[in-house]
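[worker-b] picked up task from shared queue
[worker-b] task type: protein-ligand structure
[worker-b] ligand name resolved to magnesium ion; SMILES cross-checked against name lookup, match
[worker-b] sequence length check passed
[worker-b] input payload:
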Amino acid sequence: MKKNKPRGKKKVPARNRVFTGIPGLDPLIQGGFKKNSINLVAGGAGTGKSILSAQFIVEGLRKGEPGIYITFEEKKKKFFADMEEFGWDLEKYEKEGTFVFLEYTPEQVKSILTEGGGVVESIIEKTKAKRIVIDSITSFSLLYEDELTKKEAALRLFELIDGWDCTALLTSQDESRNDGTISTALEFEVDGIILLYHVKEKGFRKRALEILKMRGTKIPEKTFSLEISPKGIVVNPLKVVAF
Ligand SMILES: Nc1ncnc2c1ncn2[C@@H]1O[C@H](COP(=O)(O)OP(=O)(O)OP(=O)(O)O)[C@@H](O)[C@H]1O
Ligand SMILES: [Mg+2]
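[worker-b] inference finished, payload out:
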């Protein structure tokens, strides 16, 4: 990175940081995800995991960083239409060849582990992807029976991702977090964890985001208000949520 960059003209990420694409979030995590880190976004149903993940990919696409979205849950046509609501034209990027949407079964991802990268690796090489999403890791880990094999499989997956020169975002369905903890086999393995909430209080639901961990990063010990706006997810760093 050049020294003495003109300030205030064009936003550039801090050294070794990757903009998340979520307004309000980057300043809370020293400028973004660490480059080539593996991050988890965990939360219950409808908390915004997939929207946040798509937004992370779109941020890259807008900056010329190709991206891959691997999902077990979403159907492409529906997903593209839902994301279009936020003004994200995934089809355009797909046609350009900078975005690849992979509807995979967990078994297919499992076979990537045994093949040592397989199809995904060749897509990454072809597209020069810099961002990858796996939505969700929960369905994948259900393939493994006990905690130990789940953990071993996750570690194998992470080893693969480590070799890809990509910043990764994985989603995890996690409801049991009233105390702000998560219960996946992955929590100690990933570099960063973001928790999303949609909590009912006095008849209203509040959306919120918390950074549970981010290796090598000073994080705020607070939970922030989150809104799903017409342009996607926005975090309000000035509005702390208590519940
Ligand atoms: N265009 C939109 N504008 C505002 N809010 C929206 C819009 N589209 C979806 N939402 C809200 O976002 C929620 C879904 O977000 P998302 O699909 O990212 O959740 P998720 O955490 O991935 O859920 P799941 O666990 O079911 O996969 C919807 O339930 C709805 O409340
Ligand atoms: Mg989802």
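[worker-b] attaching auto-annotations
[worker-b] The pocket of adenosine-5'-triphosphate (ligand 1) is lined by residues 43, 45-51, 73, 82, 85, 173, 228 (CB under 6 Å).
[worker-b] releasing lock
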